[in-house]
Amino acid sequence: MLTVGVARQRERLAGLVPDDVLSDADSLAVHHAHAVWSCLTEPGDGVAGSLIAELGPVHALEVARGAGGSTSAALEAGRRRWQARADTIDDAVDRARRVQARLIVPGTSEWPSTVDGLGVHGPRAIWTRGDLDALGGGRPAVALVGARASTSYGEHVTADLATQLARTGVTIVSGGAYGIDGIAHRASLSAGGVTVAVLAGGVDRAYPAGHAELLARIAQGPGVVVAEVPCGTAPTKWRFLQRNRLIAALSGATVVVEAGWRSGSLNTAGHAAALGRPLGAVPGPVTCAASAGCHRLLREYDARCVTSADEVRELLGGEGPDYRSTSDRVDDTTRILDALSPRSPRSADDVARRAGFAPAEARGMLALLELEGRAYRGPDGWRRGSTAR
Amino acid sequence: MLTVGVARQRERLAGLVPDDVLSDADSLAVHHAHAVWSCLTEPGDGVAGSLIAELGPVHALEVARGAGGSTSAALEAGRRRWQARADTIDDAVDRARRVQARLIVPGTSEWPSTVDGLGVHGPRAIWTRGDLDALGGGRPAVALVGARASTSYGEHVTADLATQLARTGVTIVSGGAYGIDGIAHRASLSAGGVTVAVLAGGVDRAYPAGHAELLARIAQGPGVVVAEVPCGTAPTKWRFLQRNRLIAALSGATVVVEAGWRSGSLNTAGHAAALGRPLGAVPGPVTCAASAGCHRLLREYDARCVTSADEVRELLGGEGPDYRSTSDRVDDTTRILDALSPRSPRSADDVARRAGFAPAEARGMLALLELEGRAYRGPDGWRRGSTAR
Predict the structure, then answer these.
(1) What are the start-end ranges of the H helices in chain A?
(2) ipTM for the whole complex
(3) In chain A, what residues touch B307 (CB-CB under 8 Å)?
């Protein structure tokens, strides 16, 4: 049931979008199509993104249903995976209504334009619980993220940074997890600031369960709980990794406060770097494993050493975020893959030189490609994965 | 008594130089002239350095005495300050002999060629107590320096780094001070490594007095206590700052382990940067003032974040030290001063761009010029001092 009549569209979106959308057939169709796309796709589905960028969400949905369009293998594969979820929209909107969630779609005033930096891999829609204005309004936003296994040092620094930033009108974005994320949200709330929790699963599911109350408090405001996946969606490994890109994309800068050597926060940091957003890391004792990831960011990602709220503000105040177009973004990945060999390992600096990027940019993109299995890091350097393209 | 006969030269240097020097009139004259110059000048005396670079130490000494040479104002001023110390050599060599110190002069096999990176501002001679081979031999050397007011964290990390580096044949260079310096020396000794203590006063004076036993142990080897000022010289503020440049120049890389916001270690770090030597800083808790200087180095000096002995070795293994000639070095300073305005403040990056240096190089040189009062750092950027040239 990918395409349905106006009445059905209105029924589905009642309570989830502004009333004036419900009474405007064109706007309703666009909102509905975005909602459907959000249900059909996994985060980061570039085939869907390209189709929508090319045709708009409504026409793209007709093509997804099988009506016309090219017959590329990618599109055919897309159609198969999308069709498998054709019936999920009704459950998703029912669940959303039950928790008073709202739907935000691209091209509207509530849409956070910062995520457009993700290009065709960006979210199809954003489901929210809480203050709609929290996402946008031109307010500066910083991602404060870090390890679940935080130390009292990391928690202290996080609380301090979040409090001081929140007091001066900076939105604190984080992932709602235990440890650093939770402290960042709590401190922001205590300071009366705006905070955004970005979930890997649906906003109707409190994850982690132990943070149900915290997430509810955030939704009561001033703040918002958001997800790009529809309600009812379980958080999975892939969705956590994609959630991390959304945290980075929603923020003018990303600061990692405490992170182990292989912490998921480094993934968020890699996304920030790949997006061209400023990246900061808070140092800690070199004797503490909980700071090893931050030191790695300082060494390998050219992250800026951050020791105070003022220095976070400096990060935000630097060069503006890089909101380049989809095609530029795709070209960047292609250039990096072109600079890699499947056989000869190459250093990140070498790859940067060959591809014409700054070393930090190349490292950020390599980290993402590694995550996607399209590049591999060995003891002697980087190689291209055999299924890289 | 700047110039004396061969017999007097031999009498003065007996026991301080190899016997074959005493029996070779030419070699003796050169050694003697360098020793005299060491007594006549304050560390960093560029006028003396230029004169010696141009004429050699023996002829330069005749010119210093007033025999010929140009009649520039700088030379006249130099003559006046050198003449004031014409009688100090005898006391210096007597004191040196009493503590079994040795004299090392430029152009000999014992001379550490790394200090030639200092150009005309380099040491005129090096007075040593201990193992003569400790300074050279192509052994990799790293300066481990830091705050006197160290914390147990900093001491732990220093001991760990020094032990592991010493065990793998890396010479540990430091300043013999309380705190980080002392720990670096002690750990190196305990590990059976070679350590070099660079003093601001004469090697016959244990400074600080509480480290008399430590310095004696270093001199017993494997290690050496060195100073560019002759025996009997008291450590002064200026000599500490100049001593710091010698620590940086004797080392292939400089690592600051723990340092307050205005620690003297930052001065050593600035010298390392200006010399084009790799600079590392060990991060620590941002809540600890004893690490604030290290974080400053990471932020402002582009120091490399160092968390392990392996990472220190990486620093040493990078691009070779920059042993450029005197005139290049002087030109660099001129280029930086040219890029500064006495009125309009300019950012370090702007200065780097105007002068054609990497930002880290420019920041290192600016830090040194600030130290010398030739450049000033204001809230809006860097300005040239009115007596800059």
Answers:
(1) 6-13, 19-22, 25-40, 46-55, 57-65, 73-83, 89-98, 152-167, 180-190, 212-220, 237-249, 264-274, 292-300, 309-317, 326-338, 348-355, 359-371
(2) 0.77
(3) 286, 292, 295, 299
